[in-house]
Give the backbone structure.
Amino acid sequence: MHTLGSILSGTRMESITALFEHATEGIIIVDNEGLMIKVNPSANRMFGYTSGELDGLPIEALIPASLTKKHESHRKHYLKSPHARAMGKDFKLRALRKDKSEFPVEISLSYYKNEDKTFVIAFIIDITERVQNEEKIIKMNFDLDLKVKERTSVLQEALIQLESSKEDLKHALKREKELHDLKSRFVTMASHEFRTPLSTILSSISLIAKYTQTEDDEKRQKHVQRIKSAVTNMTLILNDFLSAERLEDGRISAKYSLFSLKELMNETLIEMHGILKPGQQLDYKHEGEVNLELDPQMIKNIFINLISNAIKFSDEGKIITIRTEINNNQTFISIADQGMGIPEEEHEHLFERFFRAKNVTNIQGTGLGLNIVSKYLEAMNGNIQFKSELNKGTIFEITIPIQNAR
């Protein structure tokens, strides 16, 4: 006859056995020598062994060879002070199957004592699927980060291009406004500056028609000269505007060719004689080589601008001194007048577009000439300097490197 105690005891053992046999976790019981004395079916399947095959083998049989000695040390240390603990939470554990393949595991340890022996119970979970999922998540996160970085880079590049386009548009609008202002200023300036020479031309033509006799020839020539001077002034105004517009548009660049500097200057002086005031003289001398390689049209325009200014701002009877020299692959040009000079406080503005000194407002001019000269010199890597003293005159000195001198 079974007692209640024996029934409960039998029931408990059956429950423990059922738990051991049917647990989804692998369960291995190891004695204090490190030998496996009991392995449940889940552990056998996990490691690829058949029932009873692991019994009596050391637990290190389930550890990769590279970790065996370290595991033995850990096992002995654990047996000195056994306690329940989880393994593999903070670092990765590897286990070894019968076929020598490795796989990641999580292990929880517990223990019990029977008489003078300590037995360790290892609860083992194969976390291969979890690790694979974690790796997938890590890869997905890496790929996502990579895509975010790529998209961010593309976005940043797009923003840079947008900012660049914005700056280009802003610059283009500014240039458009400057050109519009240039044209507006020219229309205003032309209506004012052309009025005087046109009046001179009309009045001179009317008077010439009245001088029909031979003895009136001197008077006719005087008015012809006035017409020539007026036409030259109008041409200079038009040239200033057209040059300024082309330079602003970027349509002018230096076109080098071989020419005679002395011949070009003499040709320019002939054209300038038409606007000389009574008694004015052009004193020109050249030194050094004669031929050089630069842009002849730019050089001529520089001559015209500076010499016409010297004539305009000098009184009758004054001498304008012009010197050119080619030496050591450098071109030197100086043009000095005995005119009204430039106020010292206005020197810094002299090469600005449309700038006119306060002491020349009653003299015809566009305020573009010196700005154009500076742009031409910039195109040929040249430079210009000046000295000026009020009521004594101004001297402009130019230096330009040349391609060749012969």
Q: What stands out?
A: Residues 128-193 form the longest helix (66 residues). The domain at 4-126 is CATH 3.30.450.20 (Beta-Lactamase). The chain has a mean pLDDT of 83.
